[in-house]
Amino acid sequence: MKLKQAFVPVLITVSLAAILAVLNWGNILPVPIKVLAFSRWLAIGSLFYYGLKKKSLTTWILISMVVGAEIGNDYPETAVKLQVLSKIFLKMIKAIVAPLLFGTLVYGIAGHADLKQVGRMGWKAILYFELVTTVALFIGLGAINISKAGVGIVQPKSLHEELPKVAPQTWNDIILHIFPENIAKSIAEGQILQIVVFSIIFGIGLAMVREDKRMPMLKFTESLSEVMFKFTNLVMYFAPIGVGAAIAFTVGHMGLDILLYLIKLLATLYVALVVFLLGVLLPIALMVGVPIKKFFNAVAGPVSIAFATTSSEAALPRAMENLEKLGVPRKIVAFVMPTGYSFNLDGTTLYLSLASIFVAQAAGINFSFAQQLLIVFTLMLTSKGVAGVPRASLVILLGTASSFGMPSWPILVILGIDELMDMARTSVNVIGNCLATIVVAKWEGEFIENKAENFLEPEIADNA
To answer: CA of 25: how far to CAs of 21, 86, 251, in Å?
Structure first.
């Protein structure tokens, strides 16, 4: 009851701020700028009050996004300087990923000594990944051919930013990229797929040695996993600040007016992603019996982090922890989730198919349907492993444009709104990987239903 009472001032103040903004924007009733600003900050104050009553980490992250957007709008110069806070958060998260993956994967494989299950989970996960990402490719392809967002785009007379020169990727490059030559280098560069491959082989090797040699390392990896989850909880105290700073920087250096720039392309992507979520992922979740409300509670926090930071990697530790609390065994979470970060980039593959045809449309190149299929299937291969790097998909797009003889200037045009596009596609990547992990757990018959029924989202007071 107290929580509902706390929501009343939020509803009133947010409604008031929205009404004043609409009146001013539509020139129905001019409202002084100071009054508009006061109404927005009053609404934010009520959100803070609600957050204090709710005590939910996800709630505080969402509130911080609103605060960050307001700071970016009202004080853009200050907001740009806040980027250092978001970079601190990202650095701390990246410090978690490699030891967390190593500890959970090695313990999950060697601790259960069921190497057949590893292979079985592997082919099930890859089959699911490829089917779903292929559907995402076709949705992106269909969306851009319907909207024709690139038709009529005029090449700017002067381009002030330089794009990196990217050579076309060969099959050898793609295959070699999977395997680590130096695990320390892979960790330093954030190569998730290479860390996963190393950890799997290490875990298999550990499972094959005799027990007196295996147990010390097994206990070490188990302890390492537990410590890294606690490490994650400590870092999450800083999440609202890091996420708010990321949003403040985005709005501060881009401005809210960026929404009006290339709005057709932006709308095409967001509509296509919503169609994918509602038309593909939701039916899959219902078919396998995923508890939708609990699943939403579990992914809300990780998705909000991914949205603000434009990095799936930033959401990985919290997503893994929440999925385990939801009822997915740690060995399955540790195997499927990070593997999906390289093979199940639903949002990124949809975006890449859409963006590549946008580039062709802007350049006035008419590809046949067969040629478009060749482009998007090439993208499906070359996009593996880009989830951990913000806006790395632009590099993939450049390589593909080079391979198919397309100019790079339309990609430079996309740069203007790429951060807003990256927020959406990264969020879908996280949702898709979380769902894939549950699907594999259900497929293996190891999803723990009663844990899902008792799932509670983390409270800010319980994170330590």
So the answer is: 6, 32, 19
